[in-house]
Amino acid sequence: MKAMILAAGRGQRMAPLTDHCPKPLLPLAGKPLIVHHIEKLVAAGITELVINHAWLGDMLETQLQDGQQWGATIRYSAEAIALETAGGVRQALPLLGDQPFLLVNGDVWTDWDYQEAVRTLSSGVLDDGTLAWLWLTDNPLHNPAGDFSLDGTEVAAEAGDQGLTFTGISLIHPDLLAGISMGKQALAPILRQAMARKQVKGCLLNGCWTDVGTPQRLAELEQQLTRETF
User: Fold this and answer.
1) Model confidence pLDDT, tens digit, residues 105-164
2) What is the pLDDT of residue 83?
3) How far is the C-alpha of 107 from the C-alpha of 6, rounded, in Å?
4) Cys-Cys link to 133, which of 68, 121, 171, 227 (CB 3.0-4.6 A)?
């Protein structure tokens, strides 16, 4: 299985930290945020990685190079302007191939074992016409209403009273995006359309998770990880 790490966003909410550094390269517990993902993916046996980039993307390629220092093979999908989530994945499909892949937001952190994604895919969850498997979590303070709801393994677009937050970690079948046009597009509307067709399933993420979206959250996570280390 291949994995794609989304790393093209400008990171406006992280300014001024991202004025001269792409968000995925911001340091966290002694290493760039994106390196936490790379190491965990490789540890799970997922070594073929695709990373998209736009803002200060050359810095990403210069620092990460071909990924061999972590035992990975990294290929890059450069975007002249950030194409948002679906647009970025759509452009990268030729690098990802025709098999389901793991999609990870580069601006989240988790202690979750990515081997669980390998086991989930191996169980055949995308063999019945399902186009996406999402990992959800309890709502953080900054997203109290949640994004979607979960009924068994079926994900619904209406969060309602049982809303959960999408972690930005998912298994995606290429067919979910193969039919859309190239260009700037968000993933959420496409997922909602597939949910209406009962083609999106998921489960709760069994682990700690943080959307590292602001300098404050980054600082709080740094403190948390430092305490756990010492």
Assistant:
1) 999 999 999 999 999 999 999 999 999 999 999 999 999 999 999 999 999 998 888 899
2) 96
3) 8
4) 171
> Phi, psi (5° rounding) for residue 64?
-85, -30
The predicted-structure confidence for 49-77, as pLDDT tens digits, reads as follows 999 999 999 999 999 999 999 999 999 99
For the cut 60, the answer to whether the pLDDT of residue 94 exceeds it is yes
Taking alpha carbons only, the member of 77, 98, 107 closest to residue 169 is 107
pLDDT at 229: 60
